[in-house]
Amino acid sequence: MSSESRKEEILRRLRLRKYPRRSEAQFSDENDHNPLVLEDCPKCGGVGRFCVERHGEAALGACEECGGLGTTGDVVPYYGVEGPVAEAEVDSLGWVTCPTCDWRFAVKDSAVWTGRRHKRCGQKIMMVFNSSEPRA
């Protein structure tokens, strides 16, 4: 193994330790709710394996592209597209419609809302509360 390939392998291992996978990303004000994560493997979708069907039998095999890791090893932002902050009105029950993808969600649902971004599309949203209605 050449010294250049050894250096690349060491750097790859350091990135794998330092940066989380998409499923383990932590959203915070420090990272603008767009943390750096390891890119998912495009061939296996980040799973690290795939189903092989031959002669009526199915078996799971390791992804040849990523070697079963599920990642390319490259570090990328969680949301690739960065746009301006959009305003959206929160109704009296605490629901809002995303101005980018028109998906309706509850602002207290952490599975779809980071506190600043809509997880489905990555849109930054400034919540506007109707002053005539009570806050949820």
Concise account of the structure shown:
The protein is of the alpha+beta class and 136 residues long.
Q: What would you say this structure looks like, in words?
A:
The chain is an alpha+beta fold and 136 residues long. The chain has 2 domains: 3-76, no CATH class; 86-129, no CATH class. It is built from 1 helix and 8 strands, in the order H-E-E-E-E-E-E-E-E. The chain has one helix at residues 3-18, and strands spanning 36-40, 49-54, 57-62, 71-77, 86-90, 95-97, 104-106, 125-129. A two-stranded antiparallel sheet has the order 1-4. Strands 2-3 form a two-stranded antiparallel ribbon. A two-stranded parallel ribbon has the order 5-8. Strand 2 and strand 3 form a beta hairpin. The longest helix has 16 residues, at 3-18. The chain is elongated and about 70 Å long. The termini are far apart.
* Distance between the ends: 61 Å
The assigned structural class equals alpha+beta
Give the count of structural domains. Answer: 2
What is the count of β-strands? 8
Q: What's the arrangement of secondary structure elements?
A:
Elements: H1 3-18, E1 36-40, E2 49-54, E3 57-62, E4 71-77, E5 86-90, E6 95-97, E7 104-106, E8 125-129
Parallel strand pairs: 5-8
Antiparallel strand pairs: 1-4, 2-3, 6-7
Question: Which terms summarize this structure?
Answer:
single chain; 136 residues; alpha+beta; 2 domains; two-stranded antiparallel ribbon; two-stranded antiparallel sheet; 1 helix; 8 strands; 29% strand; elongated
